[in-house]
Fold each of these.
Amino acid sequence: MNFYIFDNNLKRIKTVDTYVNAIWTTRYNDAGDFQIKLPYAPYNMDYIKEFYFIQKEDNKKSVGIIENIQPEDTITNGTFITISGRFASCLFEWRANIKYALYTNLKLDAIVNNLYVFNFTEGDRELPQLKYVRTSNFDAKITSLEDIGTNCFLLIKTCFKTLKMGFREKIQNIDGANKIVFEMYEGKDRSRGQKGTVKNSYVIFSDDFDNITNSTFKISFESFNNVCYVGVKEDANKLTVKKEVVVGSGKGIYRKEKYVFGNDKTAEMTTEEWEATLTELATENIQEITQEFNGEVIPEIKYKFKRDFDAGDIVTVENKKMGVSVNVRIYEVIESYTKENYKMVLTFGNEANEND
């Protein structure tokens, strides 16, 4: 596997085809990361510099940024240099949100665009390598968001995780200049439990198919809550509540509650719209029992990453020996390269089975 190095202006300057090992980790709604260990040579330092960018030959939808450079000289192993960093969507971490924002029932696209325009496009705060291109392909909305001062990337991750949406980045030429373009996407349901008349092709990782090994399964009841109350304060400085809605049900030990506060009705909203917003906020705060399934995938047996499945897709994972079969989302894909072999480890779950 080759890697391409780009300078600060996103001009491709080097192809890396000789290295000791490499790890490339793709995540659904968080920044991925990478680590590459290279033989040390003085000429390497011409293209290994802080905030240079790196891209994997077979994946144009992820771009890393060099954040760490670590030379090492040992008697036993020789002299090497290791470069590492996160994927370039983390450039949103470079700025804090300095403009007060109060969003109610606003599309995710509009929220990202506002954060970008208000914090990355003017004066000394401009970050010329980063670009957000608006999209009308997704209707996902955030019910309520009020903020000033929070790191922009933290806000983005919180919103995307709430809506179970994903993001990635690519290098794209816009008006004659290469840019890191941040884009959102939604994983596809490729599980046996997918609904609707139009079906995506199934992706099933199973010991029956010999395409998954060293698998572990965890079901957790620790952080679940199945009832959520939303209260609206009579006054911002008091705890008295003038309006309250509740979503969910349960009794006895099987009832676990959460309480959050929602926004008051605005002049632009009808009572029905306001109540619907509060109900949606309560629904967003329901946390079902979580299931996690980790396993080492045997590459090229039945399915190929990026061709048949991607980070964010919902797939079926089985272990017949343990009697486990679940439909879970792929949140992380770890690819490891050496001269001898290639390995892939998938992290599934961290949320309830979405098809039950």
Note: Confidence is low (pLDDT under 50) at residues 351-356.
Amino acid sequence: MAARLVQGIGAGAVNSQVIGLMHNHFQGRAGARALGAYIAVSGIAATSGPLIAGIALNAGGAEQGWRAALLVSTVLGLVATVLAIACTPRRRPSFAGRPSLDVPGLAMIALITLLLLLPFVNSADSGSTAVACLGLAFLTACLFAGWEVYYSRTGRVGVIVPSVARSGGFALGSLVAGCYFVAVMSLSLLLSVFFQEGLGFSPLRSALVNLPGSAAMAVSAALSPRLVTRYGRASVCWAIALGITGVAATLVCSDRVPTGQLAVVLAMPQLLTGAASGTGHPD
């Protein structure tokens, strides 16, 4: 548990830093191309990662397979660290306010996330636990909002800049992005659990079923800068509509198609959701 906590902290820090570096060093069309390349690489990782892990799990068995999968991640992390040190720019970015680390704000964000997840982890408990967690999450969110206003008035840059948060585009974009990540991440996890626990697929076979969607995400992400340049925010609407179509098709296929043919039939909805992810995410 402690190791997973450290891993999660590192993953969250790396992801935000990569996005921040891209926004700081690339603007306009170059920024769209950089984000497209980022999502394309993510698609390649989403394609190769489960396959490598599935091979490791199949080769090592129940006892050693998961250790081998974690070892692969460790090696890749070390390689990425060396490349980051060698390739990232040395120029320090400029800030509108005094650079600082908003530790209380980050702690409250972490607490809100924990309170929202606890009811799902402890699903066997009564509904009173869920109500209590949601109530505490709401109170913490109110405290967080007040803290961020105070923090920004001291001239420091917090987790959320109030002037940016009041922007309609930022608020709507954050809402869309939040709904997108909730849907995509939950669908991916749900399908993996369904294939392995429900249908008895091996990890490698489950990864092969998800392969079309990952490949479609990589290809569409590489093409997305052209779509953004030509069609603007309309491309986001198309991507969302395509993703909804893919999810609906997945639901229909899961309910109607016989189990023996389900893995093959689900390839088409996976292509749609993958293409929507690659097209909409960089936008």
Note: The radius of gyration is 21 Å.
